[in-house]
Design goal:
By secondary structure, the chain is α+β, with helices and mostly antiparallel strands. The protein is built from twelve helices and 14 strands. The strands form four sheets. A five-stranded antiparallel beta sheet has the order 4-5-10-6-7. Strands 11-12-13-14 form a four-stranded antiparallel beta sheet, sandwiched between helices. The longest helix is centred in the C-terminal third of the chain and has 19 residues.
Length: 264
């Protein structure tokens, strides 16, 4: 690691001031991506601002027909939450399959979506459920939040504080994990909501995205057969040593079919 200052604010206001006064500073939540990056000397922040201990950033509640989860909430807490299991069991299932136990006990919801790793699980749930992302300055709709590989609509110094997931009529998440990292080579989150059907795909491309052809088919008939024969174009999908773009395109259809079967 390169040398840096470690700062531990007690409030969001203090965190923002520290960020403004410390040059190239980085916020630290669960650290499951940032710490390995620092160890490999792929990042050189002047300071780490640890927001993991700020009171009020973690917690789960049911409010206004939605599950509201604090940005500092650990993956394991989402996975075992009785409220999440009752209202959006697909979300609890997703959280229970992130990484390994060590990752799930340290990683946070806010850190995951703010980092927007192309193979992360949570972005698919945020997008498929049409969640609202609340920050220190505004509320961002899911469709506007994820903008590209490791990129989001967050401004410099803006911190995610909570995510509100509308409770769907039906939902499920299925992924084909990399056997070593457990990141999604392809993950598909399907949700039938009051506003229609939403299908979000992670792991397959440079950024989580919605599969419109599947949404249209499922709006007509919410059954596995409705998506079974949809061919996904590999043109904009990832291709690496773990799988070709064509393989990932095939997996999108397979995982979508399984997700719909699980949801019904």
């Amino acid at each position: 690691m390169y040398q840096f200052n470690y700062l531990r604010p007690k409030s969001l206001d203090e965190a923002k001031k520290l960020y403004e006064n410390n040059g190239d500073a980085k916020f630290l939540a669960g650290g499951q991506t940032l710490i390995p990056t620092l160890k490999q000397r792929l990042a050189q922040p002047t300071a780490l601002i640890d927001i993991g201990g700020i009171a009020g950033l973690a917690g789960i509640k049911v409010a206004g027909g939605a599950i509201v989860i604090g940005a500092g909430t650990r993956h394991n807490d989402v996975a075992i939450s009785a409220d999440v299991k009752k209202s959006i069991p697909a979300l609890a299932h997703l959280a229970s399959h992130i990484g390994d136990p060590a990752v799930r006990h340290m990683g946070t919801l806010g850190g995951s979506i703010a980092n927007n790793d192309p193979a992360a699980d949570y972005p698919s749930a945020v997008l498929a459920l049409g969640a609202d992302i609340k920050t220190t300055s505004r509320t961002i709709k899911a469709d506007d939040f994820f903008t590209g590989m490791f990129e989001t609509a967050l401004d410099e110094g803006e911190i995610v504080t909570e995510v509100s997931f509308p409770i769907p009529e039906k939902a499920a998440y299925m992924k084909f994990p990399n056997p070593a990292s457990r990141y999604a080579m392809v993950g598909v989150f399907v949700a039938k909501t009051k506003g229609g059907v939403r299908v979000a795909v992670t792991g397959a491309a440079s950024c989580v995205y919605r599969e419109s052809a599947m949404e249209a088919a499922l709006a007509k008939a919410f059954t596995p057969d409705a998506v079974a024969n949809i061919k996904v174009s590999p043109g904009n999908l990832n291709s690496d040593l773990h799988g070709s773009a064509e393989y990932r395109a095939h997996l999108v259809t397979v995982m979508a079919k399984r997700a719909v079967a699980a949801a019904t």
